[in-house]
Design brief:
Strand order of the largest sheet: 1-27-26
Radius of gyration: 19 Å
Protein name: Delta-60 repeat domain-containing protein
Largest sheet: 3 strands, antiparallel
Number of helices: 1
Strand content: 25-35%
Distance between the termini: 9 Å
InterPro entries: Delta_60_rpt
Helix content: under 10%
Organism: Hymenobacter cellulosilyticus
Oligomer: single chain
């Protein structure tokens, strides 16, 4: 949640130009209360429309100018709004414009942690995940072949035990792919996953083992779910909450940690494509537990989002841009949401290179 954007009075959800300037043509009506919030955001890959979860309701789709798209109407539910401080990916729109939503919480007696809506907002009758998962879904993404992968705080999905990361075999029905079976330690959970161009998956979260091998909160899997032996697994001393891939194959990670591979790296670090620590990346982040969102712009700049504990290059922003080396680029001009009004929790880059910044609050 943020209550002001650079003195403009815009709250909770803004769209930015690639320079970091406010896109004044986009004016969503989410600021009708003193503490507005948008918790989750996904972008429709065909129309570039934003689908949001928060103040406006469990799910709302917005037009290009930010007004509500009334052609998308979800039935009223009693589910709670899922707020998170991590760079969430629990909400996605697939290539058929269906909306997949991993709920962060459900009402008493319900087990429907994952739901899919058609492009008009109706619940998809071909899809029922009620009772499928015994915990929350933290991350959803679509592979190049259209199949969906889900990960989270569950260790069972559709009766498959020790399955914190699953892939569905069909785009229409919920069926777990038995050939894709990565496992974590008994209390492990997946918080973030990114897919490389070669099909390999980088996973971050809270875990000690992957497929029976030591892996401290970060690992890379082959496309079949086996551990990638060519990846040097660095020890990360805290949860990995966010991941992003650069065009050169380097991996940027952020979260609640202070060291990576034994090197001091408060909240953010970068790895070479083989998993070794990249000493050429220096972020100037001086506060731990601060970076909660990452995105890579087409020009290679790294967008960082966080809360009022985030300090980069002597600036205290909630959202800023850094050069590919990690150093802030014109931090005063590029700072987008000054603290302390609230954290920036999600930073998707739209296909047209505009930036959507979402603010949420645990309060």
């Amino acid at each position: 949640m943020f209550t002001d954007f650079n003195g403009t009075g815009r709250k909770a959800l803004v769209r930015l130009q690639t320079t970091g300037a406010l896109d004044t043509s986009y004016n969503p009506n989410v600021d009708t209360t003193p503490r507005p919030y948008v918790a989750l955001l996904a972008v429709d890959p065909l129309t570039n429309q934003a689908v949001v979860n928060g103040q406006l309701g469990e799910l709302t789709r917005l037009n290009q100018d930010g007004t509500i798209d009334n052609s998308f109407q979800t039935a009223a539910t009693s589910y709670c709004i899922g707020l998170t401080g991590a760079n969430n990916r629990r909400l996605i729109v697939d290539r058929l414009r269906r909306v997949w939503y991993g709920r962060g919480c459900v009402t008493a007696g319900s087990t429907e942690y994952l739901v899919r809506y058609l492009s008009n907002g109706n619940v998809d009758p071909q899809f029922s995940a009620a009772g499928a998962s015994n915990g929350t879904v933290n991350v959803l993404f679509q592979q190049a072949d259209g199949l969906i992968v889900a990960g989270g705080n569950f260790n069972q999905f559709l009766g498959v035990a020790n399955a914190p990361l699953v892939r569905f075999t069909d785009q229409n029905f919920v069926q777990v792919d038995a050939t894709f079976r990565p496992t974590l330690d008994a209390v492990g959970s997946v918080l973030r996953t990114v897919r490389q161009a070669d099909g390999k998956l980088v996973i971050g979260g809270v875990f000690r083992e992957v497929n029976g091998q030591p892996a401290a909160n970060l690992a890379r899997l082959n496309a079949d779910g086996t551990l990638d032996a060519a990846f040097t697994v660095p020890a990360v001393n805290g949860p990995v909450q966010s991941l992003a891939l650069q065009a050169d194959g380097k991996i940027v990670l952020a979260g609640d940690f202070s060291t990576v591979a034994g090197v001091s790296s408060p909240s953010i670090a970068r790895l070479l494509p083989n998993g070794t620590y990249d000493p050429g990346f220096t972020s100037n982040v001086v506060s731990n537990r601060a970076v909660t969102a990452l995105a890579i712009q087409p020009d290679g700049a790294i967008l960082l989002g966080g809360n009022s504990a985030l300090t980069i290059g002597g600036v205290v922003p909630s959202c800023t841009a850094c050069c590919p080396t990690g150093r802030p680029t014109q931090p005063t001009a590029r700072t987008t949401v000054p603290a302390p009004p609230g954290p920036c929790a999600t930073l998707p880059c739209c296909p047209m290179a505009a930036i959507m910044c979402v603010g949420s609050s645990l309060g």
